[in-house]
Design a protein that fits this description.
The structure holds two protein chains of two kinds. By secondary structure, chain A is mainly beta. Chain A contains no helices and eleven strands. In chain A, strands 2, 4, 5, 6, 9, 10 and 11 form a seven-stranded mixed sheet that branches. A four-stranded antiparallel sheet of chain A has the order 1-3-8-7, with no helix packed on it. In chain A, strand 9 and strand 10 form a beta hairpin. The termini of chain A are far apart. By secondary structure, chain B is mainly beta. In chain B, a hairpin with a 7-residue loop joins strand 10 and strand 11. The radius of gyration of chain B is 14 Å and the shape is globular. Classes of the chains: A mainly beta, B mainly beta.
């Protein structure tokens, strides 16, 4: 079974702090994604990566950056956390870049910014 | 751009009732269509998918048929259980460009005994 793990299930940070969310997949998948999930808005794509050291902006990249130094690990960085970044963050991985391929999701990190 | 529209929730049913959750889409190209489910406190899991017109995806008693003529992918189950209570997301992945997943807003299903 594919396993996608996220470093924290719950996180509380203060405004202005730098926040790191880590995601690891164990199936040698090429592609990895970061989404945020908000009530009434569904899932929105923040950033994605098709290869090591490669990144692409999604639909809402402002205020975020990412890092993919190793194939199995994809980090989401909030450079200076703000209260409007309070949300559920979901990481996903995908075997290869094809529209038929399933994305596999981690359990999510619920972030509260005070 | 591509988009997915789902019916508003919550959908409230009694156990053993018939379930339909409507999903329609707009897309360029020939998308693949997915239903994901999110149980309380968990991430999303793939429920079923269909990759071309007239395909039927099925899993755990749930079914959905890819209808190109009506641009729909409605989710159905003949007899729901309390354990089916969750949020259901319809999504598409277009066959062009970056082939990202585009999600609907989700429909919460509540099943009572």
């Amino acid at each position: 079974d594919v396993k996608v793990t996220q470093s924290s299930r719950y996180l509380v940070k203060r405004t202005g702090e730098k926040v790191f969310l880590e995601c690891v997949q164990d199936m040698d998948h090429e592609n990895m994604f970061w989404y945020r999930q908000d009530p009434g808005l569904g899932l929105r794509l923040i950033y994605f990566s098709y290869d090591v050291k490669m990144k692409e902006k999604g639909d809402i990249p402002e205020g975020y950056s990412v890092s993919r130094e190793k194939k199995e690990r994809f980090s989401l960085i909030l450079e200076s956390a703000s209260t409007n970044q309070t949300s559920m963050y979901l990481c996903a991985s995908q075997r290869e870049r094809h529209h038929q391929e399933t994305q596999y999701f981690g359990p999510g990190t619920r972030l509260l910014v005070l | 751009g591509d988009s997915v529209t789902q019916m508003e929730g919550p959908v409230t049913l009694s156990e053993e009732a018939f379930l339909t959750i409507n999903c329609t889409y707009t897309a360029t190209g020939y998308p693949s269509l997915f239903w994901y489910v999110q149980y309380p406190g968990e991430g999303l899991q793939l429920l079923l998918k269909a990759t071309k017109a007239d395909d039927k995806g099925s899993n755990k008693g749930f079914e959905a048929t890819y209808r190109k003529e009506t641009t729909s992918f409605h989710l159905e189950k003949g007899s729901v259980q309390v354990s089916d209570s969750a949020v259901y997301f319809c999504a598409l992945s277009d066959g062009t460009g970056f082939q990202k997943l585009v999600f609907g807003t989700g429909t919460r299903l509540l099943v009572s005994p």
